[in-house]
Design goal:
Layout (H helix, E strand, L loop, with lengths): L3 E3 L2 E2 L2 E2 L7 E6 L2 E10 L3 H20 L2 H17 L1 H12 L3 H21 L7 E3 L5 E9 L2 E5 L7 H12 L3 E5 L5 H15 L6 E3 L4 H13 L5 E5 L2 H13 L5 E3 L4 E5 L5 H13 L9 E7 L3 H14 L2 E2 L13 H11 L7 E3 L16 E2 L11 E4 L6 H4 L6 E7 L2 H9 L6 E5 L3 H10 L4 E4 L30 H4 E9 L23
Parallel strand pairs: 1-5, 8-9, 8-11, 9-10, 11-12, 13-14, 13-20, 14-19, 15-17, 18-19, 20-21
Antiparallel strand pairs: 2-3, 4-5, 6-7, 7-22, 16-18
Bound molecules: nicotinamide-adenine-dinucleotide.
The site of nicotinamide-adenine-dinucleotide has 27 residues, from α7 and α8.
Length: 518
């Protein structure tokens, strides 16, 4: 297998040296396979990238929006022509099963398809004035230079949600991808720059670790070089990024963790709910922001659901992400180590189901229906924890990994209360055949996204994506909604009366007859 050398690219040129050190990005399904040797940058390099992006932004904004839209169209076509190769790289580098990786790449194409047309819209408005011989208009202006920091569990789809609309709207970008998905990021960056014919400096990529990124971002913000921050990652880091942006009077676009509930009502189709729980809970080894956190089961169907869910989980194939499996390895060793800490939260009051063991799958801790050699990579058993309640860490906090909690409720109000209790608010789902239950749940749940008879995962590229509470600050990505992240409204009033007409004061008044009665 080929091994790449990956380094930051600023103003179209690869950066020489590795001021932040070097790391190896490995295949998590075969740890002895190095996918990329990655040269990391330091904080000054991030500042340089921000300076370059800031310098390049004006000229990019001067390119007519329909022409920028054509660039997005070309990027989409080039990604489509490289779909299999990019998906295979995603699977190799982060272990996402190949069909899911193909879906992930498709999400870039869908995003490009949506935004290529936006280049010919990006509408402003003409607005009537309260005075004659005066006209009002609104324009969408690009924000400026944008810093985008992303997690590696969706190493190309999520970045495209930021970078495609940001570029389309006339912004320049400095992207800091996750270190462990650097080869995938390099491929994405190259496809965008070549496919779009982007001028140097408009789209820059910098590889760096978390603390370096924070330091570089702070310096770039202090120097006035970054006008907008987009961050996708943990709630903990997101809170710090939001605070930093706030100190610079900016509101970051924050897309954070989730503890996504799925309510199974008494009228639910249990087979469908089990299928949704399996995909939502264990797809991508539970390492999606929209992964199912807790199943909230009506007490009358709890036993039936749990039995069937445990059977389906025990029967599912896990292993080699290029084989036909429910899920593959953990994204990177850091996630399996952290997952072990989450497993320690399981208490004596909980009942564990779903596999022949818990924790890392090894020769000594095997799992039936394992595809490949578990010792070659970092694979974890799927774990169902029944009996979780508010106050249990395992109920209250995101447990990024293949772990699903199960609890019970009696009334729908209780189900909504349990769904909201952890304080996140990204995705949610309800399985019911009762329309009034579906709509009552929708109204009560704090999540930004609600599925009815569908799993908690499965965003489409043109619906608003985002969360509330610990899942984000209310920002939304995708579709027309993300335009408000990457443009600022400018209001123009143009008075051609030749005199000073004062708003609110020089306004004609009609005389109504309030005493009139029929
Ligand atoms: P993380 O917050 O540790 O890292 C995310 C990114 O931020 C990485 O690029 C990382 O290098 C960088 N980073 C880390 N510390 C930083 C700091 N102090 N300053 C600046 N940048 C820093 O997240 P993770 O644990 O690697 O990723 C998983 C998390 O991301 C989960 O909580 C998951 O739910 C969330 N996520 C959310 C979404 C969403 O759209 N809501 C999508 C994917 C992942």
């Amino acid at each position: 297998m080929d091994q790449r050398t990956v380094s930051s690219v600023i103003a179209g040129r690869p950066v020489a040296g590795a001021p932040g050190g070097r790391i190896r990005s490995t295949n998590p399904a075969r740890l002895d396979e190095v996918v990329a040797d990655v040269a990391l940058g330091d904080a000054p390099l991030l500042v340089t990238a921000a300076q370059v992006a800031s310098d390049a932004q004006r000229a990019w904004a001067d390119v007519p929006a329909p022409v920028r839209g054509r660039a997005i169209a070309h990027i989409g076509r080039l990604v489509e022509d490289n779909k299999q190769a990019l998906a295979a790289l995603v699977t190799r580098e982060i272990g996402k099963p190949y069909p899911e990786a193909l879906g992930e790449v498709q999400e870039i194409i869908d995003t490009c398809d949506f935004f290529l047309g936006e280049g010919r819209r990006l509408y402003g408005q003409t607005v009537p004035s309260e005075m004659p011989d005066k006209q009002l208009f609104t324009f969408r202006n690009p924000v400026g230079a944008v810093a985008v920091i992303t997690a590696g569990n969706f190493p190309v789809a999520v970045p495209s949600w930021y970078i495609v609309p940001a570029l389309l709207c006339g912004n320049s970008v400095v992207w800091k991808p996750a270190e462990y998905s650097a080869a995938t990021a390099a491929a994405f960056h190259e496809l965008f720059c070549r496919g779009g014919g982007l001028p140097p400096g408009v789209f820059n990529v910098v590889y760096a670790d978390g603390p370096t990124t924070f330091a570089g971002l702070e310096q770039a913000l202090d120097a006035g070089l970054i006008d907008k921050v987009g961050f996708t990652g943990s709630s903990e880091v997101g809170a710090r990024i939001g605070e930093l942006a706030g100190r610079h009077l900016q509101s970051a676009c924050l897309e954070l963790g989730g503890k996504n509930p799925m309510v199974v009502t008494a009228s639910a189709d249990i087979d469908l709910a089990v299928e949704g729980a399996l995909f939502g809970g264990f797809g991508t080894a539970g390492q999606r922001c929209t992964s199912l956190g807790t199943v909230i089961c009506h007490e009358s169907v709890h036993d039936e659901f749990l039995t069937r869910f445990a059977e389906a989980t025990a029967a599912a194939a896990v292993g080699d992400p290029f084989a036909d499996v429910l899920y593959g390895p953990m994204l990177d060793i850091r996630f399996s180590e952290r997952f072990e800490r989450f497993l320690a939260w399981i208490g004596p009051q909980h009942k564990i189901m779903g596999s022949s063991g818990i924790g890392r799958i090894t020769a000594a801790n095997p799992r039936a229906r394992f595809a490949g050699d578990p010792e070659a990579g970092i694979f974890c058993h799927p774990t169902i924890v029944d009996g979780v309640r508010p106050g249990d860490k395992i109920f209250d906090q995101e447990t990024f990994g293949p772990l699903v909690g199960v609890t019970t409720y009696r009334t729908l109000d209780q189900a909504v209360e349990l769904a909201n209790a952890p304080g996140y608010g990204l995705s949610s789902s309800i399985y019911t055949s009762d329309a009034s239950e579906a709509f009552r749940f929708r109204r009560g749940v704090s999540a930004g996204m609600v599925s009815v008879n569908n799993s908690t995962s499965g965003a489409e590229a043109h619906l608003p994506f985002g969360g509330n509470g610990k899942s984000g600050n209310g920002s939304r990505q995708s579709g027309q909604w993300v335009l408000d992240q990457f443009t600022r409204w400018q209001a123009l009033n143009w008075d051609y009366s030749g005199r000073l007409q004062k708003a609110q004061m020089d306004v004609a008044e009609l005389t109504p007859d309030h005493d009139f009665r029929l």
